[in-house]
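User: Good morning. I'm curious how FE2/S2 (inorganic) cluster would be positioned relative to this chain. Could you predict the structure with it bound?
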Amino acid sequence: MAWETIIATDAVPDGEMVAVPRGDGDVVVCRMGDDFYVLEDRCPHANGPLSMGNFSPPHLVCPWHAWEFDCRSGQCIHSDHAAIQRYPVEIRDGRICAEFPDA
Ligand code: FES
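Assistant: Good morning! Here's the predicted structure, ligand included:
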């Protein structure tokens, strides 16, 4: 497991999401007030780019077939068997850091 700095907190407006390119898999950062969530930017249904969809806190809506995921858990709200990966987050000196598994 390794921690990586993702983006500055003030680059993610409250109630919005921001896509962040990353070599080992793009992520999407969601903000709800002072809480930040870092999740994989890929829908488990057919690999849709979640960051191209909508964020209606706390739900991320996939642009392709409208599956919805709770950004706080990564869980799909339509199925107990579908979820997106959510990574542990820490805020360090105004930057959002996330912990990723080793490649
Ligand atoms: S690819 Fe996301 S709902 Fe189909």
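The chain has a mean pLDDT of 96. The longest strand covers residues 2-8.
Let me know if you'd like a different ligand tried.
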